[in-house]
Amino acid sequence: MTDINEFKVQLEDVVKKIKDLPTLPEVAMEMLQNLDDEESSLDMVTEKIALDQSITAKLLRLANSSYYGNNSKVVTLQQATAMLGVKNVKNLIRTTTLSNKFPTEKCPAFDFKAFWRHSIATAICAELISRALHMKHDFAFTAGLLHDIGKLVLVTCYPANYEQVLRYQKEADCLLIEAERHILHIDHVDAGLALATHWNFSEAVCDAIRGHHHPEQENLNVLASVVHVANAIVHALDLAQDENDILPLLLQAAWDTLGLGEADYLSIFRETEMRFDAMDQIVL
């Protein structure tokens, strides 16, 4: 085993460091926080993103991707938002702005691309599950996208120590959360909740972060079970393409809570892969 220096992360220290992270653009924070706002018009959303050339370009690429099967070329932002719809536009904004806001060079052992591939795929799968359950899709997509955000907090705030986490995980052949606790004495769930509180996320999204490994905890929003199952599905589909990936335990109680049938899941598997392929080519 790797010889490790004792280093104990205090949650208070994580909270202080979170305040020094790069701030998100106002439009991104609005899309992450106002999940109850389903009245946003296309004109309103289009006006807000027109000033961001990167997001505009990605929206046009998504609108012209084979997944959406458009016969004619989409050439304007207005055409793209009209075709994709408010929810897809919001989801692309959330994904794009978050994936561009964390530094990637200080911890070479951490595969940022694999991290975002997994997060995006989990977001898509969680949204599809919530659609089958007739739940609010915006909550599910955002919760899936953010369920592992604590990993980014830890790797950004403590890059050298997180290198030790990754080294220990590989040598011990254990889950990453176990390696985090062994080396840092804190895990990405704790760090993710600290960030979610700082960014004023909804209680439902906080519950999904808190319970994505253990949705059996009392008084958690059902979104925790949705993200737990979506997380397991995405690991099983190997969409992150992470050679060190370990399939997490899927709790039967969470699976039973959702109450979906085999046909539902087969449809969710196929749709997750197709939608992820379209997003992956554009965002990453």
Architecture overview:
With 284 residues, the protein is mainly alpha-helical. It is built from 16 helices and no strands. The chain has helices at 11-18, 26-33, 42-49, 53-63, 77-84, 86-99, 112-132, 137-146, 149-157, 159-172, 176-184, 188-198, 203-211, 223-237, 252-258, 262-283. The model has no long low-confidence stretch (mean pLDDT 84).
List keywords for this structure.
284 residues, mainly alpha, 16 helices
- How much helix is in the residues? 55-70%
Q: Work out the number of β strands.
A: 0
Q: Return the structural class.
A: mainly alpha
Helix-strand pattern: HHHHHHHHHHHHHHHH
**Inertia-based shape:** globular
- Distance from N terminus to C terminus (CA atoms, Å) equals 34 Å
Largest beta-sheet details: none
What is the oligomer described by this structure?
single chain
Number of helices: 16
Percent range for β-strand residues: under 5%
Q: Round the mean pLDDT to the nearest integer and report it.
A: 84
* Rg on CA atoms, Å: 19 Å
Low-confidence stretches: none
Topology:
Elements: H1 11-18, H2 26-33, H3 42-49, H4 53-63, H5 77-84, H6 86-99, H7 112-132, H8 137-146, H9 149-157, H10 159-172, H11 176-184, H12 188-198, H13 203-211, H14 223-237, H15 252-258, H16 262-283
Helix pairs in contact: 1-12, 2-6, 3-5, 4-5, 6-8, 7-8, 7-14, 7-16, 8-13, 8-14, 9-10, 9-12, 10-11, 12-13, 13-14, 14-15
